[in-house]
Design goal:
Radius of gyration: 19 Å
Low-confidence stretches: 219-235
Structural class: mainly alpha
Number of domains: 2
Oligomer: single chain
């Protein structure tokens, strides 16, 4: 992928993150950290890209012109839908942005509707079945569930399909919900997002960071089903997704077991420490992650989220 194509894709993704108009200092700082983490080559001036987006100088038609193949244009739209939906279903402003982007990319209505429908299905999947009655808390069972979800998310990161990233976010929220339910908590999506934010985890930030790694590493250029190439290029991402999922699960278990009294500072500290441990632990489970990736049907991601 050429630098101008990288720049166009990432500019569209960042513009999608800003489309809701909520551009406060915290969002700017989060976007800046994400952009810095992408480690692009010198041909792409990401500071200038970020400044142009925040100042409203983004020209969607010029960005579309830089994407010279139909596949790249469809990818750009899919990324933008994923960013807009990362924190929940898109609002009216984000929907208008996506409509304008689709027109600039010269996409047909079916080409716009299909990725939106798939991502909506992932975002709106029920957090988890309601628990039946009460049962003693089984810490070992919770640990197994956390580890299994972390392995699945590490495997999803290896897939060449971009929708897999949205499934990672949905499974993380579902994991926190199930841990809370095991401790007698009835949680809604707003609480789940607040918990992740308190721990210092941004859903939109994770999505941007993951798609950035894919663009830089050439993951999106891999043919669907080319798992060998994806394994080679997605190793860093698998560590990231396994680690964030494992850390979130363990911190959620501690938080709900302790009666939800941990402060935001304590949550952030616990999450950061657990994330470092998870990165080491991931090496032990690399074979299971690769095996899980081979068994995942990318056409059934929404079903995977509902069934996990």
């Amino acid at each position: 992928m050429q630098p101008e194509e990288q720049k166009a894709l990432l500019t569209i993704a960042v513009a999608a993150a800003c489309a809701d108009g909520a551009q406060d200092d915290r969002e700017r700082d989060a976007l800046r950290r994400v952009v810095e983490s992408l480690q692009l080559g010198p041909q792409v001036n990401m500071a200038a890209v970020l400044q142009d987006v925040l100042l409203g100088h983004t020209d969607l038609h010029a960005l579309a012109a830089a994407l010279t193949t139909p596949a790249l244009r469809r990818l750009a739209f899919e990324l933008a839908v994923g960013v807009c939906d990362a924190d929940g279903l898109r609002n009216e402003t984000e929907s208008r942005f996506l409509a304008d982007l689709g027109l600039a990319l010269d996409l047909t209505p079916p080409q716009m509707a299909e990725p939106a429908a798939h991502i909506d299905a992932l975002v709106t999947a029920p957090p988890a079945p309601a628990p039946e009655g009460t049962a003693p808390i089984d810490d070992a069972a919770l640990d197994r569930m956390i580890l299994d979800t972390a392995i699945t998310n590490g495997a999803l990161e290896l897939l060449p399909q971009t929708l897999a990233t949205m499934a990672i976010l949905a499974l993380q929220m579902r994991l926190v919900y199930r841990i809370g339910a095991a401790h007698g908590e009835q949680l809604d999506r707003a609480h789940l997002r607040d918990f992740l934010a308190a721990a210092g985890v941004s859903l939109a930030g994770q999505y941007l960071e993951q798609i950035g790694r894919g663009i830089v590493g050439g993951l999106f250029g891999a043919a669907a089903g080319n798992l060998v190439g994806a394994l080679a290029r997605g190793a860093t991402g698998a560590v990231f997704s396994f680690g964030t999922t494992y850390a979130l699960g363990q911190v959620a278990k501690r938080y709900y077991a302790g009666g939800r009294v941990m402060s935001a500072a304590m949550l952030k500290e616990a999450y950061a420490a657990m994330l470092e441990n998870a990165k080491v632990l991931q090496a032990r489970y690399r074979p299971q992650i690769a095996q899980r990736a081979e068994s995942i049907d990318a056409s059934r991601l929404a079903a995977l989220v509902r069934e996990t």
